[in-house]
Amino acid sequence: MLDLDPRVLTHRSAAVCAWARLRRQVPGPPGSRHRSLALRPSGWHAEGELPRPFDALVAQVVQRRDRALADAIAVPPVGRWLLYEPEQQLACGTLEFVTHGLFNGHNVPAWDLWAAATILDAEPVLISYVPEWLVPAVDEGVQSSAEECVRWLA
Q1: 41: helix, coil or strand?
Q2: Could you report the per-residue pLDDT of 92-113, keeping only the tens digit for each?
Q3: CA 112 to CA 80: how far, in whole Å?
Q4: Segments making up each domain of the chain, as ranges
Q5: Fewest C-beta in 10 Å: which of 13, 27, 59, 101?
Q6: Who contacts 57 (Cβ-Cβ below 8 Å, separation ≥6)?
Q7: Higher-confidence residue: 136 or 75?
């Protein structure tokens, strides 16, 4: 999987913030704003469970976002890191409801926020970056997760 180099994560968090700022003006609920067609990973049904392995899907999102932002002015990242453990999710749909679609029915975070994929305790995990203005909505989901498949990284 991906090497979690701090410089790479700093770049990716800045890219997520820059993209999310652009998408912030799009009408509609947060879930539709942050599941843009431009970054949608190929070969995955957005309402379904995240397939294993998913590092190639994350790489698609990162590459598409980087290409789209090639000429954009760098935005200092302000937000929080979110960890999603797909092996822990129960597909209850609660997070999708309380966050207005920032998570899908399988508790997968919106792909516009994806930053990395790695292995933690022998299980695949997805790391997303949540810009500051989305933190309260995502935190509602984190607090509502009975199975604790999403959590904030320190």
Answers
A1: coil
A2: 888 999 999 999 999 999 999 9
A3: 14
A4: 6-152
A5: 27
A6: 41, 43, 44, 50, 51, 111, 114, 117
A7: 136
